[in-house]
Design goal:
3-stranded mixed beta sheet
Length: 386
């Protein structure tokens, strides 16, 4: 059996006490205490040094931590380049990298303007996806105030719209905003009597993003970054497809203000612009219009099914779903994804390029499935006059 230094000291001290008598015992005990204390201190010092050595060895074996990533241009930066409407400034990349609006998320919002009953479900689908992906921005749904009247009770379209509006408010935290016609005295039941100019009346928000119907929200974080980016113009527009015309089929980033809203209404009254195209003056500067582009490195922030043929033919189509913020579903000869389209007509509009064809089919399939899951609605019957 091995003895520690302390045990050995105590044994020796006991032996000395037995041989030497009472006086020697007292002295021997004092010496043994000193030996015990010094031995304990020596043991503790050795233990501390041992632990430090172990930690040094672990640090030497463990790979060094990855450096913190530096702010890099996001998909939004690639799409829009410099801050919308400016020559660029140093804080832009940092702001879009952190995706945090300077005024806070309560001051920016997604807004859908719905004036046709058949488009209500799509607006609710968009808000449902924003909710599922946990977008921190507010959600607004603008609709004709006549829909809130009780006079339409019994109309199946009105009843369905009211049901969906209530669902949007209750499940997805959507703020419902009734609006009036753009001009006084015109038919309140016609969708064309309402204008996107209403977006400028939302002065409680610093920026509002409008997504054109009908379509699917794919990546909320990309659109959140767009909402968080600086906007130094009243309006930034991104048309869909290859056309540069700005209308309800365009993605719009708006900076609401009473002054701009009144100016737009005055232009419509004086016939300088129209209800259908109310932003003629604001878009006179080409810097306010950004055309979606496609490169080998990234997909456009806003895609449209009719333009999918232009996408790069890549083997992995997952890139499209991760790098595209919103996909508008619109094709020549087809009435819209809300309708049950005959296969013959469906195949005519389908792109021929393999990757584009697969994405195109998946978008239509996802739209149909989400329409049923969120709204409880099947597709509308095909009608040639739509």
């Amino acid at each position: 059996m091995l003895l520690t230094s302390g045990q050995l000291s105590m044994t020796i001290s006991s032996g000395i006490g037995k041989v030497a008598g009472p006086g020697a015992v007292s002295k021997a005990q004092t010496n043994s205490y000193k030996v015990f204390i010094f031995t304990s201190l020596l043991f503790l010092s050795g233990y501390v040094l041992q632990q430090q050595t172990v930690h040094n060895i672990q640090r030497a074996i463990r790979p060094p931590p990855k450096p913190s990533p530096k702010p890099s241009p996001s998909v939004v930066a690639q799409q829009f380049g410099d801050p919308p409407g400016s020559k660029g400034h140093e804080t832009y990349q940092i702001q879009i990298a952190t995706s945090q609006p300077a005024e806070g998320w309560k001051k920016v919002a997604y807004a859908q303007v719905v004036t046709d009953h058949r488009l209500v479900c799509n607006a609710v689908m968009v808000f449902g996806e924003l909710h599922r992906q946990k977008s921190p921005a507010e959600r607004l749904l603008l609709f004709p105030k006549t829909w809130a009247d009780s006079t339409g009770v019994g109309d199946p379209y009105s009843d369905t719209s009211r049901r969906l509006l209530k669902r949007a408010a209750k499940r997805y935290g959507v703020v419902l905003q009734p609006i009036g016609t753009t001009l006084p005295g015109i038919n309140e039941d016609r969708p064309s009597s309402y204008s996107l100019a209403s977006l400028f009346s939302l002065i409680n928000y610093s920026r509002v993003l409008y997504l054109p119907p009908s379509g699917l929200l794919l990546k909320a974080s990309l659109l959140d970054s767009l909402l968080a980016s600086p906007l130094e113009r009243p309006l930034l527009a991104m048309p869909t497809g290859s056309s540069l015309s700005i209308d309800s089929s365009s993605l719009l980033l708006v900076r609401p203000s009473t002054e701009e809203h009144d100016h737009i209404l005055s232009s419509i009254l004086s016939a300088e612009s129209s209800v259908e195209s109310p932003f003629k003056d604001l878009l006179s500067d080409p810097a306010s219009i950004r055309q979606p582009s496609v490169s080998d490195q990234h997909y456009p922030l806003l895609a449209q099914t009719s333009a999918l043929q232009q996408l790069p033919d890549v083997a992995n189509v997952k890139d499209f779903w991760s790098l595209t913020g919103y996909a508008r579903i619109s094709d020549a000869g087809l009435p819209g994804p809300e309708f049950d389209i005959p296969q013959a007509e469906f195949r005519k509009a389908m792109p021929s390029q393999p990757a584009a064809k697969r994405i195109w089919e998946e978008l239509y399939d996802k739209f149909r499935d989400h329409r049923m899951d969120i709204c409880g609605l099947d597709l509308e019957p095909w009608r040639k006059d739509v």
